[in-house]
Amino acid sequence: MTSTQRKATSLRVGMLLVPPVQLLDASAIDVFGMLTPEYLKACGLPQPLLDLAIPVSLHYIGQSGPGTHAPMTADATLPITDSLTSPEVQPGRLDVLLIPGPDPSVVPDAAVVDFIHAHKKKGETDFLVICTGSLTAGYAGLLDHKRATGPRGLEPKLKEKFPAANFVDRRWERDGRLWTSGGITNGLDLTAAYLHHKVQKELADLVCAMADIGDRSQDYESGKAGNTIWWIWLVLRSLVKGKPKSNPGKKES
């Protein structure tokens, strides 16, 4: 968005749930909810800050449709508000489609791929892809011929599955309407950057300050080599320590 383009005065946000979904990935949608008059008023903020708020409609989209729940990690579930065919979430009706990460082994059904592809073809929706959501996005062709990032540990798998993408080692990356993030909480880094792109700066500053996000650099502090060494060290340490041994002399309370 250039400086001559107007910032959004309202947002329609959909989150596509391909279960089982990482709960922390999905938490990024809460940042959008914090933009609203209802949320800021509940925080007891002064009127000049309340005047920054914008309306936001949130849609939780799942193949199983309304009345069902999407399974998440940590034994959580999330109610589905819209199916893939619900009128409010069709191409051209959403400003943002958030794709949190599922189990890395999950291959989305053809209906999910078609839903994503239809939004891409319409060209009016921004895609925010978090962590292993890069796999879902890849299967739908979102990553083809785009700069993208994903979980560092899955980079070899991503490059093998989606050779047409240009993967970079960053917390988040943007290429046109496609925004991708690395590991789980990098989705919050990405969302903070997106808000500064999409809404009035003062509103983005306010929400990011309240959520305590957006301070980390787009680039990792450690390179790939340092990250790999850390994982090797952790594996070796775990092998040496092994499982904690129970103390037979200790009585159960």
Automatic annotation (TrEMBL):
Source superkingdom: Eukaryota
TM helices/strands, residue ranges: none
Domain DJ-1/PfpI positions: 75-195
InterPro entries per record: Class_I_gatase-like, DJ-1/PfpI, INH-QAR
One protein family per Pfam: DJ-1_PfpI
Protein name, as recorded: DJ-1/PfpI domain-containing protein
Source organism of the structure: Knufia peltigerae
